[in-house]
Amino acid sequence: MQTYGYCRISTEKQHCDRQFHALIAAGVPPENIFTDKLSGKDFERPNYKRLLRKLKRGDRLIITALDRLGREYTEMIEQWRHITKDLHADITVLDMSLLDTTNRKDLLGTFITDIVLQILSYVAQNERETMLTRQAEGIAAARKRGVKFGRPPKPPPSDFDRLKQDYQAKQISSRKAAKLLNVSQCTFLNWTKK
User: Fold this and answer.
1) What would be the CATH architecture of the domain defined by 3-134?
2) Which of 153, 155, 181 has its CA nearest to residue 166?
3) Which of 10, 97, 121, 174 is catalytic?
C-alpha cells in the first residue's frame, strides 16, 4: 500500500508550496507527490494521468482540498468513482474530514461521502463558472475603457518598406520577405495590410 499526494495550481505564477507541505505533514513521501500547473476545468493533466497509472488497490490518494482535484462537476464525480471503485484506492481530502474513504466503508459512510462529494463538486464548478463570468465582464469593461490586451504590435523594421514594394511588384514572395526580416510570414502580411 502506497500513499500518494496530488497538488494542482492553475497558473505558472502560483506556487504549490502550501499544498506540498500539507501533504508531507499528512504522511505522503515527497517522491509520491504529483503536481500539475493547469486549470481544473478538465482532467487532461499529464501528472494526474501519471498518478492514476500508479494507483493500485489499497493505495491512498491525499489532496488538500476537493477543488485541487478539479472544478468540473460531472468529471469530478466520475474521477472519484474511478479511483475508489475501479482502482479500489482510497481518497482523503485534508480540509474536509467527511471526504475520507479510509473511514467508514459501510453503506452509511459511503452514502454520506457521496452526498458531500456531490455538493462540494457542484460548489467547485459553480465557483469556476462565476469566476469566468466575472473575468469576462472585467475584460469587457476594460476594453470599453480602451485597455488593450496582449503584446503590443511589433513595429516593422527600417527595410520593411523596400521589401513591401518588392513583394507588391511580385519580385519577391511574402515568405522570402518575411525570412529576410526575420519575422513570420503572417506578421509580414499583416504589416503589408496596414
Assistant:
1) 3-Layer(aba) Sandwich (3.40)
2) 181
3) 10
